[in-house]
Specification:
The protein is an alpha/beta fold. The protein contains 20 helices and 14 strands. Helix content is 46%, strand content 12%.
């Protein structure tokens, strides 16, 4: 059950006090109002989830209060109470916009039951709003990593996910920090609740506080209605604060309070609201250095980095590249080619395996999607790759063989490949197995390439193959 702000509206003090005490013990934030006009003033601030309201009151009736609230755009759900068991009154209350109706004397257990039902309905409405305003994405098929760094990373994810610990994910842009955050959420006890991703670098600074923590109606110019804020939208779930290093210092103080007190204060509100939210943050910046420079609060840094996970760049885990390429090709084919079969040239796979990938997995996704769009009949060739990959730019090993503009693309790629393979074997002191691992290809593929390029006269393989047990 999500924590809610509830107002008890009744001109009888005893009823207000009994209900308030019972609801407070059940974990609700409770306010009281002794008449309809006072209640409307409090409701106008826009931060009351449910009002339990008497119908018969001395100034304005509960039904009139509901009508005024609805006319003012107040989103509060009303549960009406009356001592008069009149069906007509019940119908009138529902027609005015009330969510439910109870006969006095009300039982405390019945009130709690009605609140749970309304919480469920409000939760569905809030979820629909979030889905319309945020791109939450869907749970994707998980890729099985081959490299030791990624297996270590998966072990850390498995360890921290079942806990409620705050997590700080570090790594270069495009390394999959958002995927890691979503996986932590999906493997946690909060998996059935909301996962709210927030790009702190994309939020306008003047609106950042109200976006994160909400605001009351009239809190500032243009606040024509109350806003719940992303932290309360994520109540019971997980909020993912991407690019946390972009958060201004004044908001860092407020975030620290949220972490320590488990409560937030919307802009313009005098009342703090409880927020049961797990925080996962990510950054591609050096927060420790930012602390030393006075650009990031040290106390917040320590709170966020209780458990750190580093996402290694692709160039440090080349073993994953061939499998990741195939995974992204299959996934992209489903999305872009309606699942049509695809064929990829071996030269393409080898160029992709040798590329440095400065933009990491995000760059690889873009390259794969581009290739699938350009491919004829699902056949991916070197011509479908961006120039910086097809021409060998960005490859980790420097190759000085120039490209001959007089040759066609396939001949130029072969010339470049042969130079790359010769360099890799030389750097490995003639050990073909090590050279194949560095190139990200199988040993049999390497031997096939060596034989092909020797036949074409593109590679002097006799020296490279000396002392090769296969040639003995």
């Amino acid at each position: 059950m999500k924590s809610m702000d509830v107002m008890v509206i009744d001109d009888e003090p005893a009823i207000r006090q009994i209900l308030t005490a019972h609801l407070s013990r059940a974990g609700y934030n409770v306010l009281q109002a002794s008449n309809g006009l006072n209640a409307f003033e409090l409701l106008s601030k826009g931060d009351i989830d449910v009002a339990i309201c008497d119908i018969k009151m001395p100034d304005i009736s509960g039904i009139e209060l509901v009508r005024r609230a609805r006319a003012a755009g107040i989103d509060t759900s009303f549960i009406m109470m009356t001592a008069f068991a009149s069906v007509d009154t019940a119908i009138e209350a529902i027609q005015a916009g009330a969510a439910d109706y109870m006969i006095k004397p009300v039982r405390n257990e019945e009130v709690l039951h009605r609140l749970v039902k309304i919480a469920d309905l409000r939760g569905l409405r809030a979820e629909n709003r979030v889905l319309r305003s945020l791109v939450l994405g869907k749970k994707k098929d998980l890729f099985g990593f081959a490299s030791a760094p990624m297996r270590d990373l998966e072990r850390l994810i498995d360890k921290v996910s079942p806990t409620d610990s705050t997590v700080l994910i570090t790594g270069e842009s495009g390394t999959g920090k958002g995927v890691i955050a979503r996986r932590i959420h999906q493997q946690s006890p909060r998996a059935s609740e909301a996962f709210i991703p927030v790009n702190c670098g994309a939020l306008p600074e003047n609106l950042m506080e109200s976006e994160l923590f909400g605001h009351t109606k009239g809190a500032f110019t243009g606040a024509d209605r109350a806003r719940k804020g992303l932290f309360l939208e994520a109540d019971k779930g997980t909020i993912f604060l991407d690019e946390i290093g972009e958060l201004p210092l004044q908001l860092q103080v407020k975030l620290l309070h949220v972490i320590e007190e488990k409560s937030i204060r919307p802009v313009g509100s005098e009342q703090a609201k409880r927020a049961d939210v797990r925080i996962v943050a990510a950054t591609n910046r050096n927060l420790a250095q930012m602390v030393a420079e006075g650009k990031f609060r040290e106390d917040l840094y320590f709170r966020l980095s209780v458990f750190q996970i580093h996402a290694p760049p692709l160039r440090e885990r080349r073993q994953d590249i061939p499998g990741l390429v195939r995974f992204l090709l299959q996934r992209g084919a489903k999305r872009l080619l309606e699942g049509a079969p695809i064929l990829i040239d071996p030269e393409v796979e080898e160029l992709l395996a040798a590329y440095e990938w400065p933009g990491n997995v995000r760059e690889m996704e873009n390259v794969i999607d581009r290739a699938l769009i350009l491919a004829d009949d699902g056949h991916v060739t070197c011509a479908d790759l961006p120039p910086q990959i097809a021409k060998g730019k960005g490859v980790g090993t420097t190759v000085t063989t120039p490209l001959d503009s007089g040759n066609n693309l396939r001949e130029q790629v072969r010339s470049f490949e042969s130079a790359l393979i010769g360099k890799a074997i030389s750097d490995a002191d003639g050990d073909r197995r090590i050279a194949a691992q560095k190139l990200g290809i199988g040993l049999s593929s390497l031997y096939r390439k060596l034989e092909e390029y020797e036949t074409l006269g593109l590679l002097q393989v006799s020296a490279a193959l000396q002392d090769d047990p296969r040639q003995a």
